[in-house]
Amino acid sequence: MINILQAARWLLLAVAIAGIHAAQAEVTRVEIASRTDVLSGMSFGDAGPYEKIVGRVYFAVDPMHPANRRIVDIDKAPRDASGRVAFSADLYALMPKDATRRNGVALLDVVNRGRKNMLVHFNRAPPRADPTTEAEFGDGFLMRRGFTLVWVGWQFDIPSRDGLMGLEAPPIIEDGRPITGQVTTSFVPNAPDQTYPLNNLARYADTTRYPPINPSGVANTLSVRDGFLGTPHLISPDQWQLRLADDKGTVAEAIALVLKGGYEPGHVYELSYEAKGAVVSGVGLAALRDFASALKHGPQGPLSQVRYLYAFGPSQDGRLLRQFLYEGFNADEHGERVFDGIMAHIAGAGRGGDFNARFARPNGLGFFEATLFPYLDLAQRDPVTGRTDGLLANLSADQQPKIFYTNSSTEYWGGGRAAALTHTTIDGQDDARVPDNVRIYLFAGTQHVPGGFLPSQGPGQQQANPNEYSWAQRALLLALDRWARDGIAPPASRHPRLSDETLIPQQKLDFPALPGVRSPRTIPGPYRADLVGLPAQHPLPFMVPNVDRDGNEVAGIRLPDQAVPIATYTGWNFRSPTIGLPDQLQPLTGSYIPFAVTRAAREQTGDPRPSLEERYGDRTTYLARISDAASKLVAEGYLLEDDRAAVVGRAMGRWDSATQGTPLAGR
């Protein structure tokens, strides 16, 4: 714990924060567990040394305030003596010790299932809950520029262990007692084991927060289907058992599902059971809103000097940010704008009905379940319900931030995320107008989260796609900063379009026939997850980026690895036969399908794509073309000059690994 002097200092901060908007104090206090120098006071360029603050933030909101009524079941939460609903969240921050060296901008990282993202994406650091070594801070990109970095928990079902960050949400009480209800979760086993744990964050099937009322109750069901869109078939109750880690019926450390004879790998199982323990999950959105508002509008203190505030969130967190915008949370209780900029990354057109709902399960993968109307920022008409709505409809022009939507190819192809619907009409017939405060970027030929530096074989039929997009993310972050602070327009949107046929219906895609590669035309398309009925009853247009003769996408930000390729880079992959159902999509995974090195090797396998030897001739020619591609991106604003040499160097490393000294005859 901190010493007496530090404690006194932070008590003053807590009192000051409690005075923010005194009539409606959303942040009531901050408790600090530690305040330490980063890397023993090592200097990060002009920003100087950084310090780390770890603690907890306490909130209290008026459930009757119009800005809070959209929180599901907030009216059923216990209230304190002042009639407010209280909750708290974990806090973590990194900032220059010298306030005069801060650049005036705070970046709030929306944690992903309790895990920090920001240093991984922008500092190119390894994922760590609490970085302590120089290597764990990556190359210091964010720190050298003087950003204040903050994290606050928003998800209620994160276990308090291993440095994960979560939120303590209030229970839902009805008629003086906790409510009960039906909980449904789905999962896909990769092995024929008889026992499947349902509390594994890595498997996106965490139901520990909701213990069953009766593990063998008649309301509990288990079904199985072939693929995510297959027809479900009930499994007889005598064939399976819901098992707790203890025998007392209390919240268990583990909930497991035991199936006689074992699971069929690759099949989708869906468990539904009567549960207890529901909480007001939507206060997580209020925690992000109110802590961010306190940073911007609060009094002087160690976390002050923040004039601009940006939020970054990938995948689950990108969907959360789209939900955050849609539900109007970018305006605080006083109608003031919260975030000045938002980077919602790899979310596609998805949002999340499980972020603000009774018996919410925010850990879910959102696979084929996140396509909720509306999809566009501007108002669009729903042809099914006749309703007109837009993602930014609940925010005034002054409350709207500058927004970057960035996606990999996977969000156009896999899991029903339907990224094309963020910039096309709902019928898939026309390009839609994108508002002036929004930019949309596709990182062409990439997967949801890039694979390692060198391609590796994972659970997919093809090697995972290693095409790295973090270089472009760094350039775009600085562009967003200039846009929000100085009004300097960022690089133009880069995404495929119907007007020039760089975006086309999936079934019109002319993907080359490659040896050992399954056609992507067999991948199922998205459907309306917000309408009742079978998926086939409510399909959505399946629009995908067009490709060249190699199968590489022709639109978007084409980073050098993809613009001057040594392989075909896709946003889709199929399950390996070793884990069952090889005709099904491998979630969130792309493919790296290498070119043959020589013409002779290509002809031997029947590969229609020219070999490295035929298209480049030698290493020197390849280096020149990679360098030209990188320089072009720098000129266009999609790559930083400081990163150009590293991008070229990594591409050459992959070339050397692919060719392994093979003599090339030239073109």
What does this structure look like?
Among the domains are: 1-172 and 280-301, no CATH class; 180-276, no CATH class. It contains twelve helices and 25 strands. The chain has helices spanning 4-18, 118-122, 141-144, 283-297, 316-326, 410-413, 470-486, 560-563, 599-605, 612-615, 619-636, 641-659; strands spanning 27-37, 50-61, 85-96, 105-109, 148-152, 167-168, 173-174, 177-178, 180-187, 195-197, 221-225, 233-234, 240-244, 255-259, 268-276, 308-314, 341-345, 380-381, 388-389, 402-408, 438-443, 503-505, 543-545, 567-570, 591-594. The strands form seven sheets. Strands 1, 2, 3, 4, 5, 6, 16, 17, 20 and 21 form a ten-stranded mixed beta sheet that branches. β20, α6 (410-413) and β21 form a beta-alpha-beta unit. The chain starts with a helix and ends in an 8-residue tail after the last helix.
Write the topology of this structure.
Layout lengths: L3 H15 L8 E11 L12 E12 L23 E12 L8 E5 L8 H5 L18 H4 L3 E5 L14 E2 L4 E2 L2 E2 L1 E8 L7 E3 L23 E5 L7 E2 L5 E5 L10 E5 L8 E9 L6 H15 L10 E7 L1 H11 L14 E5 L34 E2 L6 E2 L12 E7 L1 H4 L24 E6 L26 H17 L16 E3 L37 E3 L14 H4 L3 E4 L20 E4 L4 H7 L6 H4 L3 H18 L4 H19 L8
Parallel strand pairs: 4-5, 4-16, 16-17, 17-20, 20-21
Antiparallel strand pairs: 1-2, 2-3, 3-5, 3-6, 7-8, 9-15, 10-14, 11-12, 11-15, 13-14, 18-19, 22-23, 24-25
